[in-house]
Amino acid sequence: MRMHLFLSVALLTASVPSFAQAPAAPAGTAVVVRGLTDPWAMAFLPDGRMLITEKAGQLRIATPDGRLSAPLAGLPAVAATGQCGLLDVVLDPQFSENRRLFFTFAEPGPGGNSTAVGSARLVDDQLREVRTLFSQKPKMDSGSHCGSRIVVDRQGHLLVGLGDRFSGKDEAQNPGNHIGKVVRLTTDGRAPTDNPFVGRSGAAPEVFSLGHRNIQGAALHPVTGDLWASEHGPQGGDEINVVEAGRNYGWPLVTYGRNYGVGTRIGETGPKAGFEPPLHHWVPTSIAPSGMAFLSSDRYQARQPEWKGSLFIGALRGQALVRLTVDGRRITAEQRLLEGQARIRDVRQGPDGWLYLLTDGAGGQVLRLLP
Asked: Distance between CA 130 and CA 16 in Å, rounded?
């Protein structure tokens, strides 16, 4: 099924990117959108258009025929430094009724910056009622390990991966702050009463799980509703985890990663009681896993029937689309697609059932994966 092509009048401020110097599509893909600068995330609107974030602080709308809007006005100030900036964007499950969206960004403030969660309503292609729901505490003087992905769970709460900010790695084991954690929030930014640390002395009530380094991919399993996440290790030690309430995922006490350059051990490799082992990990070389999505549609069934039910993960350092075969909570096989052709920042299944990939960097593109 081909997406409906929307009239250009729908975006009066739309600009058509120049295709003359745009990179060619990697083999096995078709270019949908060109002309992006350091894009980080995409989210599909009900009408087939998509929202795309750019790390410097721009949020744009792209039509199915590749037209890009001017940046939408009204976002809060963004600390665009290093790995941080404007990051993820997702729609409220009731978006068709309430027009609400959620986004993460590096929020500047006293002490540096921290990852924050914002919300807004998209009305007539304009952002309204923009506000900050939650701010990671404490702020740090860092341009690294901001995370982050947002997933809406089946109770309608926000699960948000927050990085350890690199210099704060030991704080990932401290339940009293938000460093190196997954937090769970209501859509107005509060801690749900059934969060695992609510009422516990010395613990932040928003914390859902701890011991994370730098989550840059997350998705709900389409059948079980479990939260799956991809996490950057340092030198090796990238992980795939099923993230559960109150669990500790080890960083930096239990990890397969090694210290940069020298390759010395960080903590223990495990398994170790009290810490959750990853379902899958990469050693000795990191792939730098990013956005991820489960394929639940039948779009590729004719030529690639084995793809349905797989977990697809973008790889930045690995420059590939990684397909993991999933059997329950076991990863039974790994396949690398598009290897060496692009740094893939985000992966989403579109409302039409196709897989869409967002490539990283100055010449960023949205690609559709062909069967």
From this structure: 27
Token readout for 296 is 């639940």
User: Active-site residue among 4, 145, 178, 221?
Assistant: 145
**147: number of CA atoms within 13 Å, CB side?**
35
Rounded-to-10 torsion of CA 133, 138, 144, 147: -40
ω into 351 cis (within 30 of 0): no
Q: Dig out the tokens for 181 from the structure.
A: 């954690």
Helix (H) or strand (E) holding 167: none
Catalytic (active site) residue 145: yes
Q: Is there a cis peptide before residue 192, judged by omega within 30 degrees of 0?
A: no
Q: How far is CA 3 from the centre of its chain?
A: 25
The H-assigned helical ranges of the chain are 95-98
Residues contacting 129, CB < 8 A, separation 6+? 119, 120, 121
- Amino acid found at 231: E
Phi-psi category of residue 300: left, alpha or beta, with phi > 0 → left and psi -120 to 50 → alpha: alpha
Can you give the pTM of this predicted structure? 0.92
- Contact indicator for 314, 324 with CB cutoff of 8 Å: no
Q: What is the DSSP string of 100-129?
A: EEEEEEEEEETTEEEEEEEEEEEETTEEEE
Mean pLDDT, 10 residues at a time, the chain of 371 residues: 36 34 78 97 97 98 96 97 97 97 98 98 98 98 96 98 96 98 98 98 98 98 97 96 98 96 92 97 96 98 97 97 97 97 96 97 96 92
Q: How many CA atoms lie within 13 A of 36 on its CB side?
A: 33
- pLDDT tens-digit readout, 178-230: 999 999 999 999 999 999 999 999 999 999 999 999 999 999 999 999 999 99
CA distance 289 to 114: 21
- Dist CA 65 CA 3 (whole Å): 9
* 197 HSE (CA, 13 A, CB side): 25
Torsional sign, CA 316, 318, 321, 324:
negative
Q: Are 172 and 252 in contact (CB under 8 A)?
A: yes
Q: Which two tokens stand for residue 45?
A: 């609107």
